[in-house]
Design goal:
By secondary structure, the protein is an alpha/beta fold. Helix content is about 30%, strand content about 15%. The strands form 5 sheets. It has a 7-stranded mixed β-sheet with strand order 10-20-11-12-17-18-19. A 5-stranded mixed β-sheet has the order 1-6-7-8-2. β15 and β16 form a beta hairpin. The radius of gyration is 24 Å and the shape is globular. The protein binds flavin-adenine dinucleotide (FAD). The site of flavin-adenine dinucleotide has 35 residues, from β3, α3, β4, α4 and β6.
Length: about 575
């Protein structure tokens, strides 16, 4: 699939996470270039961090495998035909002629991650029975991709995530808060005290990842997630003659009698998460040229071998990026240095080096220092409900794009521990920061990576490093995902002012209405819409609420008014299955 945007990972289906097989090799399968002097990680040394794994290992969950046992169409091989692929709007006869079995369900969500979860949670609470919902997904649990991405980017279960109790994806009411829950579980007032004195005398309180996952599991069981889950890869969604949509699912090998299954539905929700992993162009070029997925890694892929290697001998790591993932990676490198007495040298390259408070005007300012821009949460808090939210809802076109630019920019929370570690690194001369642009990455004569960097003062320098960790992002273009590209090519989906999928204020994908049928979308592919924080738990919940309200207006579910809200919260509090 071609893309006008350079530097993306060659994953033809698009998507990020454990649901995909097309990622780079992991562990021992990573190929070392012939010139390399580095040993691959010793098997016995794998996974020695973190020690405190007090959370249960992930169980396996049975998906609801309702593939038709017998396909009843006389003709066709049960696969997509050239005619289907070329036709924008499908008739029932066209699908039948291809021999693809059809399953009717009023509502389906594609993805099965956090965005799908919160949407289904709202609908179940709004009284929609499990028979009316199907979740088409390539993962087993709604938190699987999120857990994968947080774990590899150095937020294992015992560590704390970035967002607070403004949103609990397992609890649409957000009450009681994570801090109250933690205080009760730990029988300690520490979390409550932190909430009381934050952020002046303590960092912002945020929950441990493990607690978030445990709560998601509890709520998933309560709403009977696995009764609605159907495993497989969604290939495309097309409009149907007469209204509604066909969604084509490719079930796992051998799970069904035909290669494809069609779901015929009135409503579709697209919650496929990140369209793809994006690498900096020079890093992607290095990996492709040398077929080296070992020394140049993305923070969003498994790169435990880097930390394992550094325990075996001193080494230098070049960290790229200035966001929260760079902070996490630095913390891991620095924790290991302290814990195992390592001699790791860290070079941190910022493209934009922030020296102090910055911003367009007095109302749009962020603190900053030592390269980083600081912000507690992913977005200014006012996007969730204040004036900024109201203003954004009215902006169109270039004005909206400019507003996103003004509030955007890479940032990380200011945390006491990180500041102390970086100060120690600067004093000890083992943490070095640079401002500059990397122009190329090559293999040096000693087999190490050599980054050619144009520094802020115009000087060109070569930086040798044993490993480069790219912490710059998950920002692949929406067309990188095959399903989204298909929606753009065949179903009238366009781009919003910042280049992602154009959604209405109700999160309906603009241009896709078909009779009474509607397609909704939420999450990262819709960033740039009327509501800014879409790729966060709270943003996903706001989208889910808008979608549930829209579906209530259309008569698909009940409105969650005060009476239903109270009675459903009581059920939630008692963990009563619905
Ligand atoms: C490292 C990291 C930390 C984050 N921390 C926070 C935080 O602290 N607080 C916060 O509010 N937000 C956070 N976010 C942002 C966001 O809330 C999460 O990424 C969240 O998981 C997004 O949910 P989603 O449903 O959009 O995507 P996902 O949870 O990734 O789910 C999408 C799923 O769709 C599946 N899929 C894609 N294509 C197909 C297909 N064709 N067929 C079938 N399945 C498909 C994918 O495999 C994936 O599992 C973080 C993000 C990252 C990357």
């Amino acid at each position: 699939m071609s893309s006008p945007y350079p530097g993306q990972t060659p994953n033809h289906g698009g998507g990020v996470g454990p649901g995909y097989a097309a990622g780079p090799p992991s562990g021992d399968a990573r190929r070392l270039p012939p010139t390399s002097v580095f040993p691959s990680s010793a098997p016995g040394q794998q996974q020695s961090y973190p020690a405190q794994q007090s959370y249960p290992a992930q169980q396996s969950y049975p998906a609801q495998q309702s593939y038709p046992a017998q396909q009843s169409y006389p003709a066709g091989g049960g696969d997509l035909t050239p005619q289907l692929i070329e036709t924008d709007i499908w008739s029932d006869q066209l699908v039948a002629a291809a021999g693809i079995p059809v399953i009717d369900v009023p509502f389906l969500t594609i993805g099965g991650g956090i965005g799908s979860f919160v949407t289904v949670d709202y609908l179940r609470i709004a009284g929609v029975p499990t028979e009316s919902i199907r979740i088409l997904s390539n993962i087993d649990t709604p938190w699987q991709t999120y857990e994968y991405l947080t774990r590899v980017s150095q937020i294992p279960r015992p560590e704390r995530i970035r967002s607070d109790s403004a949103s609990r994806p397992d609890n649409i009411w957000g009450f009681p808060s994570y801090a109250v829950e933690e205080a009760m579980k730990d029988k300690s007032l520490k979390a409550l005290w932190q909430v009381l004195v934050e952020p002046m005398f303590a960092d912002f309180y945020t929950p441990r990842a493990g607690m978030v996952f445990e709560n998601l599991e509890r709520e998933a069981k309560r709403i009977r997630w696995w009764d609605m889950l159907v495993k497989g890869q969604v290939r495309m969604v097309r409009r149907r003659h007469g209204g509604g949509y066909y969604t084509i699912l490719t079930p796992p090998d051998g799970a069904a009698q035909t290669k494809r299954i069609a779901y015929r539905s009135q409503y579709v929700h697209v919650g496929i998460g990140y369209p793809g992993l994006k690498f900096l162009p020079e890093l992607q070029e290095f990996r492709t040229k040398h077929q080296d997925f070992h020394h140049v890694v993305n923070a969003y892929e498994d790169h435990e071998h880097v930390y394992t290697f550094l325990k075996s001998r001193p080494g230098t790591v070049l960290v790229r990026g200035g966001g929260i993932v760079a902070s996490r990676v630095l913390q891991r490198l620095m924790d290991d240095r302290e814990k195992f007495g390592l001699q790791t040298q860290i070079v941190h390259l910022f493209r934009t080096y922030v020296r102090g408070p910055h911003g367009k005007n007095a109302w749009l300012r962020r603190p900053g220092s030592n390269g980083f821009a600081y912000q507690g949460f992913n977005y200014p808090k006012s996007v969730w409900g204040g004036q900024l939210k109201a203003r954004m809802r009215k902006l169109e076109g270039a004005e909206r794009a400019q507003a996103y630019k003004d509030m955007g920019g890479t940032n990380t929370p200011w945390r006491r521990r990180w500041q102390a570690q970086m100060n120690a690194g600067r004093q000890g001369n083992w943490y070095h920061t640079l401002e500059g642009t990397a122009e190329a990455v090559n293999l040096g004569p000693d087999g190490r990576t050599l980054s050619r960097v144009k520094l802020g003062n115009g000087q060109i320098t070569d930086i040798p490093a044993d490993f480069i960790i790219d912490c710059t992002g998950l920002e692949a273009d929406v067309r990188e995902h095959r399903l989204l590209a298909d929606l753009m090519d065949h179903s009238g989906v366009g781009r919003n002012p910042v280049g992602r999928l154009d959604v209405e204020r109700t999160f309906e994908l603009r241009g896709t209405a078909n009779g009474e049928g509607r397609i909704y979308a939420s999450g990262s592919p819709t960033l740039g819409g009327y509501f800014p924080g879409v790729d966060t738990f709270l943003g996903l919940q706001v989208a889910a609420q808008e979608i549930a309200d829209d579906l209530a207006r259309r008569g698909f579910c009940k409105r969650i008014g005060p009476g239903r809200s109270v009675s459903q919260w009581l059920k939630w509090a008692r963990n009563q299955q619905i």
